[in-house]
Write a structure and sequence with these properties.
Layout (H helix, E strand, L loop, with lengths): L6 H6 L1 H4 L5 H10 L1 E5 L5 H11 L3 E5 L24 H12 L4 E5 L8 H5 L4 E4 L4 H14 L2 E8 L2 E7 L7 H4 L12 H4 L5 H18 L20 E6 L4 E6 L21 H4 L13 E2 L1 H9 L4 E5 L3 H4 L8 E2 L17 E5 L5 H11 L6 E4 L2 H8 L8
Helix pairs in contact: 4-5, 4-10
Amino acid sequence: MALELTNEEISRYSRHLLLPEIGVEGQVKLKNAKVLIVGTGGLGAPLALYLSAAGVGTIGLVDFDEVDASNLQRQIIHSSKDIGRPKVASAKDRIKGINPFVNVVVHNTMLTSKNAMEIIGEYDIVADGTDNFQTRYLVNDACVFLNKLNIYGSVFQFEGQSSVFGSKDGPCYRCIYPSPPPPGLVPSCAEGGVMGVLPGIIGTIQAAETIKVIVSGLLKPHGSNETHGAKPLIGRLLHFDAWRMTFRELKLEKDPGCPVCGKNPSIKELIDYEQFCGLKKDQNSEPIETITALDLKKRLDSGDKIQFIDIREPHERAIVKFPNAIIMPLGQLVRRMEELDSSVDSVFLCKIGQRSILGIRALREAGYKGKLLNLQDGLNAWARDVDNSMPVY
């Protein structure tokens, strides 16, 4: 049953009601809409803030993470007092503080192939605020199977992009990106960094697209593409460069051979997205040997001779230095491997222990014979467990 506006809501949303493109009819559509936000981080924060302020009646939040101090540079829905709390709980409090009329449903869990269809199926539209490829493909496929629009956004360093996937005649995410990049090729924001305001800009664009498709009637199943003058990012990818302050628009086409939304789809149900993105260990490959920060400290205290290889870039070493480490950025490892002493154990250092895995694999493939160890969880683990005078970044 459709919900009408109360007098309080008419007062609250009066600036929307004065817009003929939205008006009372559009605001009622917003009130009756159910939007699922996947991720309550950099993109999910402005999405949740603006959609709640706009009067979306039901907002679902999916996230399994807790608020960390490093989040607060960009995830403006959380505050310092929320550190350590579940992100969905922190976000819910902020949403209710902005608009008590919004019904907030929290899903304090990881979105997986086992629960995605059930969770997404309860909503009219999905706004994807995730930061990893396996969840993006999962969200995309579930939206296609359930005939839901997918309001897409992504950010990295100074660049971001947004589009609307899953419409009747438009492309899906797989049409544009048929397969994920090799694991480790594209660093996460935790490794590569991100300008704090960037996800605010892209997330706000996602919020605008969400509002537009709701009030323009695009949520009707297999309905008309008539949008009453609105022009959502269907068949278009908006690219933004915050450092150069430029916007570019790329035309996107639906791929008739797409394995999910094409004419003869080969994927008809959710798959194992960890495996699809190459994140599961290859049983035939040689495992990477790791060492914890505490175990490494014990070896040093016992007098073991170890060489440390810091594969980070210069701007990262300016944040924190590890004493007596050989400075050898990831891209230089193979051509400089003769500089390493293969008679002693080598421990590879990076921020969180991910890029160092790539370095170890590259040296193995190049024929290096010495023992290679990866510092588990990287220098952040050393700072946390061994040397508290070092910053965690």
